[in-house]
Specification:
By secondary structure, the protein is α+β, with helices and mostly antiparallel strands. The chain is built from four helices and twelve strands. It has two domains: 3-59, no CATH class; 75-199, PUA domain-like. Strand 6 (75-78) and strand 7 form a beta hairpin.
C-alpha cells in the first residue's frame, strides 16, 4: 500500500490506498488552487474529492504533526474558528451505529441535503438554534459524506467533500430534520447514491 506523506510546517497529509487517486498534485505538491475547493489555513480541500477523516482535520488546521485531534462523532466543532464539520454516513450498519445514531440523511436533489441532527438538538436552544442562525453568527458549516463506513474488504471509506452549506429550513426537534443548501453541486455519483435513501 502506497503512503504519501507531506510535511509543510505543521501540515501533515496522509493519502492511503483509495485516497491517493482523489488527492491531485495541487494537494500533495504545490497547494495551488483547485476548482471549487475550500481554501483554509493555507491548504486546499477539494470539493468532490474523497478524504479520510484525519486528512480533513489536518486541512482545517485541527490536527498537526505534533498533535492529532480525536474525532469519531458525526459533528466536529472548531470553536476558535467558528466552524462546524458535519460527517455523514449514508448507509448505516446496525453493528457499527447505535440505535440513537441511526440518523436519516439523504439528498433531496443535487444542491439540497436532508440531515438529521443529534437527538438532543432543538430549534430554540443550543446547537439546534445555532444551526438555524449560523449565518447571522458568522458560523461556517461544511458537509462531508460517505456511502458507508467500510468497503467489502473491511477497509474504512473516506468522506466526499460536499463543501460549505447553508441552512434552508427544518422540521421537528430532538432530533431536528434540517435541509442544507450546498454552495456547489454535489458529485453525480454521490447524488445518485444519496437520493436512493430518500424513500427509505
Amino acid at each position: 500500500m502506497v503512503v504519501f506523506v507531506l510535511i509543510e510546517k505543521d501540515f501533515l497529509f496522509l493519502a492511503r490506498g483509495q485516497y491517493g487517486q482523489s488527492l491531485n498534485s495541487c494537494h500533495l505538491v504545490t497547494h495551488q488552487p483547485c476548482p471549487h475547493g475550500i481554501y483554509h489555513l493555507g491548504h486546499y480541500v477539494n470539493s468532490g474529492a474523497r478524504y479520510a477523516r484525519e486528512q480533513i482535520l489536518v486541512g482545517f488546521g485541527v490536527s498537526t504533526f505534533e498533535k492529532q485531534a480525536n474525532s469519531r462523532e458525526g459533528v466536529f466543532s472548531i470553536r476558535e474558528q467558528n466552524i462546524e464539520l458535519l460527517f455523514v454516513t449514508l448507509n448505516k450498519n446496525e453493528k457499527q451505529f447505535s440505535p440513537t445514531t441511526m440518523y436519516h440523511d439523504y439528498a433531496i436533489n443535487e444542491q439540497l441535503f436532508h440531515w438529521q441532527s443529534q437527538n438532543s438538538a432543538r430549534p430554540d436552544y443550543g446547537r439546534g438554534l445555532d444551526y438555524i442562525t449560523h449565518k447571522a453568527k458568522g458560523k461556517r458549516l461544511f458537509l462531508f459524506v460517505r456511502e458507508q463506513a467500510k468497503d467489502e474488504f473491511g477497509k474504512t471509506i473516506g468522506f466526499v467533500n460536499f463543501g460549505e452549506v447553508d441552512y434552508v429550513s427544518h422540521t421537528g426537534r430532538q432530533p431536528m430534520n434540517i435541509t442544507w443548501q450546498l454552495r456547489n453541486t454535489m458529485p453525480k455519483f454521490m447524488w445518485k447514491h444519496a437520493a436512493k435513501l430518500a424513500m427509505a
